[in-house]
Protein 1
Amino acid sequence: MLGSLFLSGILAVAQPVAVQTANQTIVEDGADGMARAVNRMVGGIISYVRWPESPAAAARNLCIVGSPTITASIAPSIAGGLPVTVHRLSAAAVSVRKDCDILFLGRMAVADRQRLIGWVRGRAVLTISDDDPDCLHGAMFCLSARAGRLGFSVNLDAIGRGPLRVDPRVLKMGQNDGSAT
């Protein structure tokens, strides 16, 4: 009995620490370490987002616009979920195509970024950027790489403007500045 109370106490104390550090992942050594870390993180973010349509979709379409700054090898997979199909598009092609469930925004002209963020508002489109670590330019999730680690932050205002539902635990993790280890 005393042992189970002690274990429960440790778990209760340990949970906040896990939340504080869960928005970061260590990047493995090697040429593909950063690509694997980005793909794990993007896949994890996608898995905690709920789209308003029925779950009958065959796959999620991730559209890469601009030049990704952290890695060019973006091919996330969602454990136990839908596959992700990756398309590279111009900013103009996104609004014509209209089947992008996820926009991955790399480095691009400011006018193109503003146009895409404006187009996404009110739509069921998840936006992730790797060219805005402080999440100031309208993307919902923003990746940042530093000192062998990959982290993310969230833009609650951008998430609140659309019909997507994001698990509150992920939102809490993304609000942390990533300084805890």
Note: Residues 4 and 74 are 44 Å apart (CA to CA).
Protein 2
Amino acid sequence: MSQREQLIRGLYRTMFESGDVALAERVVTAGFIDHAAPPVPVPVPAGPGQLRAVVSYLHSVMADIRYEIDDVIHDGDRLAYRATMSATQTGELFGFPPSGRSFSVQQIHIVRFDGDLIAEHWACRDDLGALRQLGHIS
């Protein structure tokens, strides 16, 4: 397993699953851009603050967040991975009230590294599938 793959796996365990945002400054560049950030309550400029805002937002609307990284592909300064995310909705999500229900969806993520730090992130998430499982749409 490469150092970059270890960083990604650790990032999900340490930040996204636990909600501990202290790691942000050590894993992303000062100009980090999350091109696929969910709508956070207050817009935040690029950089570690953007990552902290996304993680904090997710933990304000979901509980029991888990990520299983299924596949990882490296190519130069890019790393792509397929993940399964599961959680329980406990707060307003995409304008829908808390359901208390759980969901599990597939996601594809791509990150661009600048040296040892993540500079950019893109994602393709099954938000529609999550909303269906939560009972918000049919």
Note: The chain has a mean pLDDT of 94.
Protein 3
Amino acid sequence: MSDTRESKRQMRSAARLYAVQALFQMEASGSTVEKVTVEFEDHRFGATYEGDEMAEGDPVLFRRLVNDAVERQALIDQMADRALVAKWPIARIDPTLRAVFRAAGAELTAGDTPPKVVINEFVDVARAFFPEGKEAQFVNGVLDHMAREARPEAF
């Protein structure tokens, strides 16, 4: 793979991670979409914290995921609820996982990235937040169900 293609892939992966963080932050703080997206783009994309350089993110994908997750939240949450056990609706799920499902749901309902790519990318995001747990497997199962509902023609 060329350096340019790899760089674009890494920027898209970073944008997905940042979208999950932004959605989490919005839910936790009550911040607006505009405030959070500007903060991330101005202060996190490519920033250096305690000697560690943050990845550059694809701002177009980042904004689209955050905006679409907010605009389609009711639809995405209903899809996630149908994938979850009845006793565990999305409202009872860990807020980080809820943000993962919402960002992934935004990309799945947009319909331009193959569902398997979306699932793999967001399973990797879950691993970044939960490196020791079974959350990545849980995310894989829920997103597979959501993808089959959102894009049945892809399966």
Note: The chain has a mean pLDDT of 92.
Protein 4
Amino acid sequence: MSIQHRPGSIVGLPKFAAPTDFAESPLSQALKQPLLLGLFLPIQAGGWTQSTLERSTDWRFDYNKALTLKAEELGFDLVFALSQWLPKGGYGGVFDGQALDSFVSIAALAGLTKKIMLISTMHVLYGPWHPLHLAKFGATLDHITGGRWGINVVTGHRAVEHEMFGWPRIEHDRRYELAAEFLEVVQRLWSDTENFSFEGESSWKLGGGFVTPKPNFGRPILVNATGSDAGIAFAGRYSDIVFITSPTGADIDSALQSLPAHTKRVKDAAIDVGRTVRTLLNPMVICRPTEKEAWELAERIVAHADHRSPQGFQSLNSDAQAWKGRDPQDPYRAIGGNIRVIGSPEQVVDQFVKLKEAGVDGLQLSFFDFRDDLEFFGSHVLPLMKQAGLRH
């Protein structure tokens, strides 16, 4: 038997089961923590910091594997990384374009880890992806990891990424409409017990598709990063975790003023459709034994700022709306991160407490020197987070 759906009939489908509907799922277990804790893996050259100051940070797999295993040892809940398709030279300077693929890299970590959730960032609107591919590959990784795998759904905000696959860039809000259609079909393939056919507005079609095995907990974990109206509406309907930015830039004091309203807006979008989402923010953490030492490092990073790519990650004709609050004249811009958390271990934890009070449900950490800074974080910051009630 094949169930047939035609254009437009995707609207009004019944609610799909989510990992949070199962108390024993890895996501439900992680959400018992007062504050989710993740690591933003640097699988791209330069990591997140546009500086030539010497450090160990490296895009290669062995380096990122070691980071993941250390994060798991420290009790982190999840890891993920970016996905990018760039021309020769990347954004320029330290961001020279060398980068691993997020889907393949995260999949390679599946058999090497035991507890940490693994999220693959994937552009779903272009490239090789068909919903049937993703449904099968995702269900397989779900079984390999026991429900620890998920997708950070991205639609592409740089013209060059679409053009590289032979397409003109799709208009911003239209991208979310097509991504919604894609995810609806993937979720049907994860849940349906009969063959499923579909013909919609995208270039792909589905004729009698069926996927086994079915995921362990309804479906894999779904994440997306957004700040626009269309993206927030999409997140409210589909995501478990929404990767947000500060609407007012990377300065911590400014961010703490704008985040309460922003996190409420994101969560209300889910409540409006009978769902719940959690927010995840990416701080760049510069922590040293004293405030003075932390700021001295920050100043050294800025003193070695790499100006060969003035716009950094916003290069190559980006129409991302989440970064509109970035100040191009910010003197600390080279440090990177959605926000900057700088100080002693006690000061860092105090800022984490304030971010939680602002409605942030989790932190996806970045560091300047990932290997050494993660080690320091585990030894000096994590115990204080537990004392502050942020971690069990």
Note: Residues 1-13 have pLDDT under 50 and may be disordered.
